[in-house]
Design brief:
40% of the residues lie in helices and 10% in strands. The chain has 386 residues and is an alpha/beta fold. It has a single domain (23-366), classed as Glycoside hydrolase, family 3, N-terminal domain (TIM Barrel). The strands form four sheets. Strands 6-3-2-1-12 form a five-stranded parallel β-sheet, covered by helices on one side. Strands 7-9-11 form a three-stranded parallel β-sheet. The longest helix is centred in the first third of the chain and has 18 residues, at 118-135. Residues 33-339 form the Glycoside hydrolase family 3 N-terminal domain.
């Protein structure tokens, strides 16, 4: 059994000996985080674990009571026998996989953000981390850094803490710092900004026509602050940004990811894609093309959340692209380096922390935050989307 002090590095390319096909497959599989059906490990998921995937994301279909969820997380981590990251969308408000006692039902981020209190938002982050760690999660895909500028937006809206860019930056960074202080990786989403779209990328491919100056004054402001705070990860948006790249969505664009996020904003954490099975991608590109072009653009880790055959096709496409020389091996090494940094800090072994739910520390973190909030979760809108 591994411990927090024995985090293993991912596979590295050998500088002198040729890389075997199986070793290369593991190198490329490490760039993927997958979803799986049900509340137990199935054969497809087990095989992908054995082949070296980085981790897994859990959805409503995977979680039950706190005890059942903790048992599944322990089963997965024990089965992996290595640092294996488990992630979840636990934003509060409409988007929360863990619901009902002993978990805290949080208000929407809009409601929490209206107080404008960074200490309050940091406590929310610490509370989220406490509850997630209790059942075995390492990574929370929160906070939303999209600026809530469009009342007609069908997917962001009250998931954002504010309609003002600098407030989103201030409050989003505070929540992320709370999460990471509590031992859970944060993820700012959805770069470079999904807040002003009128369509939902789960269902179609949105396009924004704002000029570059507008993007720098609004959409990019929270992500610049997130990068400067050196927080763990950022998630891409499956959105077209005409001022940056008229040809492909941000997830597949080197101009957006390498030039803007990495070079202009200075972000050097893990860059994770939104789910490649969302219709914004799946209706316009093959998963093979999306995975290869995304890797070249600078994505370090791909979410493929629903179907094992799609997950396999995506991994195999990256393998073939490395073999052909289309993807430089240095690009895979670069992704591994960032993933290893995240694992070293946030990959926790299977552990029993359920008793901390309801403890005095938990109650103090949750004081005054509980809500009766209900709302439709746009990330569970369809089977093949997140």
């Amino acid at each position: 059994m591994w411990s927090e002090n024995s985090v293993q590095s991912g596979p590295r390319f050998c500088e002198t000996a040729p890389v075997t096909t199986s070793a290369l497959y593991r190198d490329c599989a490490r760039l993927f985080m997958v979803g799986f059906p049900g509340t137990r490990i199935d054969a497809d998921f087990a095989a992908l674990m054995d082949d070296g995937i980085y981790g897994a994301i859990l959805f409503k279909r995977n979680v039950g009571t706190a005890q059942e969820t903790a048992a599944l997380c322990r089963e997965v981590k024990t089965r992996a026998g290595r640092p294996f990251i488990l992630s979840v969308d636990q934003e509060g408000g409409r988007v929360a996989r863990l619901r009902g006692a002993p978990f805290t039902t949080l208000p929407s981020m809009r409601e929490l953000g209206q107080r404008g209190d960074v200490q309050h938002l940091e406590r929310v982050g610490r509370l989220l981390a406490h509850e997630l760690r209790a059942v075995g999660f390492d990574w929370d895909f929160a906070p939303v850094l999209d600026v809530d500028t469009n009342p007609a937006n069908p997917v962001i809206g009250d998931r954002s803490p504010s309609r003002e860019a600098h407030e989103v930056a201030r409050l989003g960074v505070a929540l992320a710092r709370g999460l990471e202080a509590g031992g859970v990786a944060s993820c700012g989403k959805h770069f470079p900004g999904h807040g002003d779209t009128t369509t939902d990328s789960h269902l179609t491919l949105p396009r924004l026509t704002h000029d570059l100056e507008r993007l720098r004054q609004v959409e990019l402001v929270p992500f610049r602050a997130f990068a400067q705070a050196r927080l763990a990860s950022v998630m891409t948006a499956h959105v077209m940004f005409d001022a940056l790249d008229k040809d492909v969505p941000a997830t597949m664009s080197e101009r957006v990811l390498a030039r803007v996020l990495r070079e202009e904003l200075g972000f050097d954490g893990v860059l994770v894609s939104d789910d490649l099975e969302m219709k914004a991608i799946a209706d316009h590109y093959t998963v093979e093309e999306a995975a290869v072009r995304g890797t070249l653009a600078g994505v370090d880790l791909f979410l493929v959340c629903h179907h094992a055959d799609v997950q396999r096709r995506a991994i195999e496409a990256v393998v073939k692209a490395v073999e052909s020389g289309r993807i430089p091996r240095e690009r895979i090494q670069e992704a591994h380096r960032r993933l290893e940094v995240l694992s070293a800090r946030f990959a926790h072994p299977a552990e029993d922390r359920l008793a901390t739910l309801g403890s005095a520390e938990h109650q103090e973190l949750a004081k005054g935050l509980d809500s009766a909030f209900v709302g439709k979760d746009p990330t569970e809108v369809m089977v093949a989307a997140r």
